[in-house]
Design brief:
Length: 318
Protein backbone atom coordinates (compact mmCIF):
# COMPACT_ATOMS: atom_id res chain seq x y z
CA UNK A 1 0.00 0.00 0.00
CA UNK A 2 1.42 3.40 -0.97
CA UNK A 3 1.18 5.91 1.88
CA UNK A 4 0.87 9.13 -0.11
CA UNK A 5 1.10 12.65 1.29
CA UNK A 6 2.86 11.69 4.49
CA UNK A 7 3.94 15.33 4.74
CA UNK A 8 6.24 15.29 7.77
CA UNK A 9 9.23 17.56 7.04
CA UNK A 10 11.15 16.16 10.01
CA UNK A 11 11.45 12.73 8.32
CA UNK A 12 14.32 12.42 5.85
CA UNK A 13 15.24 9.31 3.86
CA UNK A 14 18.64 9.26 2.17
CA UNK A 15 20.38 6.70 0.04
CA UNK A 16 23.89 5.84 -1.05
CA UNK A 17 25.08 3.72 -3.97
CA UNK A 18 24.34 0.13 -2.96
CA UNK A 19 20.60 -0.10 -3.58
CA UNK A 20 19.14 3.11 -5.00
CA UNK A 21 16.12 1.43 -6.59
CA UNK A 22 15.04 -0.06 -3.26
CA UNK A 23 15.54 3.29 -1.52
CA UNK A 24 13.40 5.06 -4.11
CA UNK A 25 10.66 2.46 -3.69
CA UNK A 26 10.77 2.82 0.11
CA UNK A 27 10.42 6.60 -0.16
CA UNK A 28 7.49 6.14 -2.54
CA UNK A 29 5.75 3.78 -0.11
CA UNK A 30 6.18 6.32 2.70
CA UNK A 31 4.94 9.10 0.44
CA UNK A 32 8.00 11.35 0.45
CA UNK A 33 10.86 12.20 -1.87
CA UNK A 34 14.37 10.96 -1.22
CA UNK A 35 16.43 13.73 0.35
CA UNK A 36 18.92 15.39 -1.93
CA UNK A 37 22.43 14.05 -1.52
CA UNK A 38 25.29 12.95 -3.74
CA UNK A 39 28.09 10.41 -3.53
CA UNK A 40 31.09 11.15 -5.70
CA UNK A 41 34.78 10.36 -5.77
CA UNK A 42 37.83 12.55 -5.59
CA UNK A 43 40.40 11.92 -8.31
CA UNK A 44 42.29 9.51 -6.04
CA UNK A 45 39.13 7.47 -5.36
CA UNK A 46 38.27 8.81 -1.91
CA UNK A 47 34.54 9.11 -1.16
CA UNK A 48 32.92 12.54 -1.12
CA UNK A 49 29.44 12.99 0.39
CA UNK A 50 27.29 16.08 -0.08
CA UNK A 51 23.92 16.51 1.69
CA UNK A 52 22.13 19.09 -0.41
CA UNK A 53 19.32 20.13 1.95
CA UNK A 54 18.96 20.96 5.63
CA UNK A 55 18.49 18.01 7.93
CA UNK A 56 18.93 19.91 11.22
CA UNK A 57 16.70 18.42 13.93
CA UNK A 58 15.34 15.72 11.60
CA UNK A 59 14.97 11.96 11.99
CA UNK A 60 17.23 10.69 9.20
CA UNK A 61 17.15 7.20 7.72
CA UNK A 62 20.09 6.12 5.56
CA UNK A 63 19.42 3.13 3.30
CA UNK A 64 22.51 1.13 2.38
CA UNK A 65 23.02 -2.60 1.93
CA UNK A 66 26.63 -3.46 2.68
CA UNK A 67 26.77 -5.94 -0.19
CA UNK A 68 29.54 -6.24 -2.79
CA UNK A 69 31.68 -4.25 -3.00
CA UNK A 70 31.19 -4.38 0.76
CA UNK A 71 34.18 -2.29 1.75
CA UNK A 72 33.18 0.55 -0.59
CA UNK A 73 29.61 0.54 0.66
CA UNK A 74 30.63 0.44 4.32
CA UNK A 75 32.96 3.40 3.83
CA UNK A 76 30.20 5.38 2.05
CA UNK A 77 27.89 4.65 4.96
CA UNK A 78 30.38 5.70 7.64
CA UNK A 79 31.08 8.99 5.85
CA UNK A 80 27.36 9.69 5.42
CA UNK A 81 26.75 9.04 9.14
CA UNK A 82 29.54 11.47 10.01
CA UNK A 83 28.09 14.07 7.65
CA UNK A 84 24.64 13.74 9.21
CA UNK A 85 26.04 14.01 12.71
CA UNK A 86 27.93 17.19 11.83
CA UNK A 87 24.81 18.60 10.14
CA UNK A 88 22.88 18.32 13.44
CA UNK A 89 20.48 15.51 12.54
CA UNK A 90 18.27 14.63 15.52
CA UNK A 91 18.62 10.88 14.95
CA UNK A 92 20.70 8.84 12.50
CA UNK A 93 18.93 5.58 11.70
CA UNK A 94 20.96 3.18 9.58
CA UNK A 95 18.78 0.92 7.44
CA UNK A 96 20.80 -2.14 6.42
CA UNK A 97 18.58 -4.39 4.28
CA UNK A 98 21.65 -6.66 4.08
CA UNK A 99 24.31 -6.61 6.81
CA UNK A 100 27.65 -7.50 5.24
CA UNK A 101 30.28 -9.44 7.20
CA UNK A 102 27.48 -10.95 9.33
CA UNK A 103 28.79 -14.48 8.76
CA UNK A 104 31.95 -13.65 10.68
CA UNK A 105 30.06 -13.49 13.98
CA UNK A 106 32.31 -15.67 16.18
CA UNK A 107 35.78 -17.18 16.36
CA UNK A 108 35.43 -20.51 14.58
CA UNK A 109 39.20 -21.03 14.64
CA UNK A 110 42.12 -19.57 16.52
CA UNK A 111 43.28 -16.05 15.59
CA UNK A 112 40.15 -15.22 13.58
CA UNK A 113 38.49 -11.78 13.74
CA UNK A 114 34.85 -11.21 14.66
CA UNK A 115 34.18 -8.84 11.80
CA UNK A 116 30.44 -8.52 12.43
CA UNK A 117 31.30 -6.93 15.78
CA UNK A 118 33.92 -4.68 14.15
CA UNK A 119 31.32 -3.33 11.71
CA UNK A 120 28.95 -2.70 14.61
CA UNK A 121 31.67 -0.76 16.43
CA UNK A 122 32.38 1.32 13.33
CA UNK A 123 28.72 2.27 12.85
CA UNK A 124 28.32 3.28 16.48
CA UNK A 125 31.57 5.23 16.58
CA UNK A 126 30.59 7.11 13.41
CA UNK A 127 27.40 8.26 15.14
CA UNK A 128 24.54 5.90 14.27
CA UNK A 129 21.71 6.04 16.82
CA UNK A 130 19.68 3.04 15.59
CA UNK A 131 20.03 0.13 13.18
CA UNK A 132 17.19 -1.45 11.19
CA UNK A 133 18.11 -4.65 9.38
CA UNK A 134 16.49 -7.66 7.79
CA UNK A 135 17.25 -11.28 8.68
CA UNK A 136 20.64 -10.94 10.34
CA UNK A 137 22.66 -14.09 9.69
CA UNK A 138 23.08 -14.55 13.44
CA UNK A 139 20.58 -13.05 15.88
CA UNK A 140 23.33 -12.43 18.46
CA UNK A 141 24.64 -9.63 16.21
CA UNK A 142 21.94 -7.47 17.81
CA UNK A 143 23.94 -7.74 21.02
CA UNK A 144 27.07 -6.40 19.30
CA UNK A 145 25.45 -2.95 19.40
CA UNK A 146 24.81 -0.65 22.36
CA UNK A 147 22.13 1.20 20.37
CA UNK A 148 18.64 -0.09 19.46
CA UNK A 149 18.55 -2.72 16.70
CA UNK A 150 15.30 -3.66 14.96
CA UNK A 151 15.54 -6.90 13.02
CA UNK A 152 12.79 -7.39 10.46
CA UNK A 153 12.12 -10.84 9.02
CA UNK A 154 11.56 -12.08 5.49
CA UNK A 155 9.68 -15.30 6.27
CA UNK A 156 6.17 -13.76 6.09
CA UNK A 157 6.84 -12.23 2.67
CA UNK A 158 8.29 -15.47 1.28
CA UNK A 159 5.55 -17.56 2.89
CA UNK A 160 2.78 -15.43 1.40
CA UNK A 161 4.26 -15.89 -2.06
CA UNK A 162 4.12 -19.67 -1.80
CA UNK A 163 0.70 -19.56 -0.12
CA UNK A 164 -0.66 -17.68 -3.13
CA UNK A 165 0.61 -20.47 -5.41
CA UNK A 166 -1.77 -22.85 -3.61
CA UNK A 167 0.60 -25.79 -3.85
CA UNK A 168 -0.41 -29.10 -2.30
CA UNK A 169 1.55 -31.68 -0.32
CA UNK A 170 4.51 -29.45 0.49
CA UNK A 171 7.40 -29.86 2.91
CA UNK A 172 9.62 -27.04 4.16
CA UNK A 173 13.30 -27.93 4.13
CA UNK A 174 16.11 -26.42 6.18
CA UNK A 175 19.45 -26.78 4.34
CA UNK A 176 21.26 -27.22 7.68
CA UNK A 177 20.59 -27.57 11.40
CA UNK A 178 21.14 -23.85 11.99
CA UNK A 179 18.15 -22.93 9.83
CA UNK A 180 15.57 -25.12 11.55
CA UNK A 181 13.92 -22.22 13.43
CA UNK A 182 13.48 -20.30 10.16
CA UNK A 183 12.06 -23.39 8.42
CA UNK A 184 9.69 -23.99 11.34
CA UNK A 185 8.33 -20.43 11.06
CA UNK A 186 7.56 -20.92 7.37
CA UNK A 187 6.12 -24.38 8.03
CA UNK A 188 3.77 -22.96 10.68
CA UNK A 189 2.55 -20.31 8.23
CA UNK A 190 2.00 -22.83 5.43
CA UNK A 191 0.78 -25.58 7.78
CA UNK A 192 3.36 -27.99 6.42
CA UNK A 193 5.87 -30.46 7.90
CA UNK A 194 9.61 -29.81 7.86
CA UNK A 195 12.68 -31.75 6.82
CA UNK A 196 16.36 -31.11 7.52
CA UNK A 197 19.45 -31.59 5.38
CA UNK A 198 22.20 -33.07 7.56
CA UNK A 199 25.37 -31.83 5.90
CA UNK A 200 29.06 -31.56 6.56
CA UNK A 201 31.05 -28.49 5.49
CA UNK A 202 34.77 -29.34 5.14
CA UNK A 203 35.73 -25.72 4.40
CA UNK A 204 33.99 -22.36 3.67
CA UNK A 205 31.70 -22.33 0.60
CA UNK A 206 32.03 -26.11 0.23
CA UNK A 207 29.18 -28.31 1.47
CA UNK A 208 28.64 -32.03 1.31
CA UNK A 209 25.12 -33.40 1.75
CA UNK A 210 24.99 -36.36 4.11
CA UNK A 211 21.40 -37.30 5.04
CA UNK A 212 17.83 -36.04 4.80
CA UNK A 213 15.86 -36.07 8.04
CA UNK A 214 12.11 -36.13 7.41
CA UNK A 215 9.63 -37.43 4.84
CA UNK A 216 10.03 -35.81 1.42
CA UNK A 217 8.86 -38.72 -0.77
CA UNK A 218 6.49 -37.46 -3.48
CA UNK A 219 6.27 -33.99 -1.95
CA UNK A 220 6.95 -30.50 -3.26
CA UNK A 221 9.96 -29.31 -1.27
CA UNK A 222 10.60 -25.65 -0.43
CA UNK A 223 14.13 -24.97 0.80
CA UNK A 224 14.47 -21.80 2.87
CA UNK A 225 17.70 -20.04 3.85
CA UNK A 226 18.69 -16.51 4.84
CA UNK A 227 21.64 -16.12 2.43
CA UNK A 228 22.54 -17.82 -0.83
CA UNK A 229 26.15 -17.03 -1.75
CA UNK A 230 27.86 -19.44 -4.13
CA UNK A 231 24.69 -21.63 -4.18
CA UNK A 232 26.68 -24.79 -3.42
CA UNK A 233 24.60 -25.72 -0.38
CA UNK A 234 21.21 -24.97 -1.91
CA UNK A 235 21.84 -26.77 -5.22
CA UNK A 236 23.32 -29.84 -3.52
CA UNK A 237 20.29 -29.92 -1.25
CA UNK A 238 17.88 -29.62 -4.19
CA UNK A 239 19.59 -32.39 -6.12
CA UNK A 240 19.62 -34.64 -3.05
CA UNK A 241 15.91 -34.03 -2.44
CA UNK A 242 15.00 -35.06 -5.98
CA UNK A 243 17.27 -38.09 -5.83
CA UNK A 244 15.50 -39.14 -2.62
CA UNK A 245 12.01 -38.88 -4.03
CA UNK A 246 10.85 -35.26 -3.87
CA UNK A 247 8.42 -34.43 -6.68
CA UNK A 248 9.86 -30.94 -7.31
CA UNK A 249 11.99 -28.41 -5.48
CA UNK A 250 11.61 -24.67 -4.92
CA UNK A 251 14.07 -22.55 -2.98
CA UNK A 252 13.92 -19.15 -1.32
CA UNK A 253 16.11 -16.78 0.63
CA UNK A 254 16.14 -13.20 1.89
CA UNK A 255 19.61 -12.18 0.71
CA UNK A 256 20.67 -13.25 -2.83
CA UNK A 257 24.44 -12.68 -2.66
CA UNK A 258 24.86 -15.03 -5.66
CA UNK A 259 28.62 -14.74 -6.09
CA UNK A 260 31.06 -16.76 -8.17
CA UNK A 261 29.46 -19.81 -9.82
CA UNK A 262 26.06 -19.30 -8.19
CA UNK A 263 24.01 -18.48 -11.28
CA UNK A 264 25.47 -21.33 -13.31
CA UNK A 265 24.83 -23.76 -10.47
CA UNK A 266 21.22 -22.63 -10.09
CA UNK A 267 20.59 -22.88 -13.83
CA UNK A 268 21.83 -26.46 -13.92
CA UNK A 269 20.24 -27.58 -10.64
CA UNK A 270 16.95 -29.31 -9.87
CA UNK A 271 15.54 -26.06 -8.47
CA UNK A 272 12.34 -25.16 -10.31
CA UNK A 273 12.20 -21.59 -8.99
CA UNK A 274 14.36 -19.51 -6.65
CA UNK A 275 12.45 -16.78 -4.79
CA UNK A 276 14.54 -13.93 -3.35
CA UNK A 277 14.04 -10.39 -2.05
CA UNK A 278 15.63 -7.16 -3.23
CA UNK A 279 17.77 -6.51 -0.14
CA UNK A 280 20.66 -6.94 -2.59
CA UNK A 281 20.28 -5.62 -6.15
CA UNK A 282 20.84 -8.14 -8.93
CA UNK A 283 22.47 -7.26 -12.23
CA UNK A 284 20.65 -8.18 -15.42
CA UNK A 285 22.88 -11.20 -16.02
CA UNK A 286 21.76 -12.66 -12.67
CA UNK A 287 18.04 -12.17 -13.28
CA UNK A 288 17.62 -15.54 -14.98
CA UNK A 289 14.11 -16.96 -15.59
CA UNK A 290 14.42 -19.27 -12.57
CA UNK A 291 14.73 -16.31 -10.18
CA UNK A 292 11.69 -14.46 -8.83
CA UNK A 293 12.37 -11.25 -6.85
CA UNK A 294 10.02 -9.87 -4.17
CA UNK A 295 10.24 -6.37 -2.71
CA UNK A 296 10.90 -5.62 0.96
CA UNK A 297 10.15 -1.91 0.42
CA UNK A 298 6.66 -1.98 2.03
CA UNK A 299 8.03 -3.70 5.15
CA UNK A 300 10.95 -1.30 5.55
CA UNK A 301 8.71 1.70 4.86
CA UNK A 302 6.39 0.64 7.68
CA UNK A 303 9.36 0.18 10.02
CA UNK A 304 10.64 3.68 9.22
CA UNK A 305 7.25 5.26 9.90
CA UNK A 306 6.86 3.35 13.18
CA UNK A 307 10.31 4.39 14.38
CA UNK A 308 9.75 8.01 13.36
CA UNK A 309 6.37 8.14 15.11
CA UNK A 310 7.78 6.33 18.16
CA UNK A 311 5.34 3.45 17.72
CA UNK A 312 6.05 -0.20 18.42
CA UNK A 313 8.04 -2.01 15.73
CA UNK A 314 7.61 -5.48 17.26
CA UNK A 315 4.44 -6.21 15.28
CA UNK A 316 6.56 -6.06 12.11
CA UNK A 317 8.93 -8.77 13.35
CA UNK A 318 6.49 -11.54 12.47
Amino acid sequence: MIMVKYGDPSLKVLTLNSNRDLAAEIAEKIGIELSESSVTRFSDGEVQINIEESIRGCDTFVIQSTCAPANEHIMELLIMIDALKRASAKTINVVLPYYGYARQDRKARAREPITAKLVANLLETAGATRVISLDLHATQIQGFFDIPVDQLVGVPLLSDYFKDKQMEDIVIVSPDHGGVVRARKMADRLKAPIAIIDKRRPKPNVAEVMNIVGNIEGKTAIIIDDIIDTAGTITLAANALVENGAKEVYACCTHPVLSGPAIERIEHSKIKELVVTNTIPLSDDKLIPKIKMLSVAPLIAKAIIHVHEERSVSQLFD
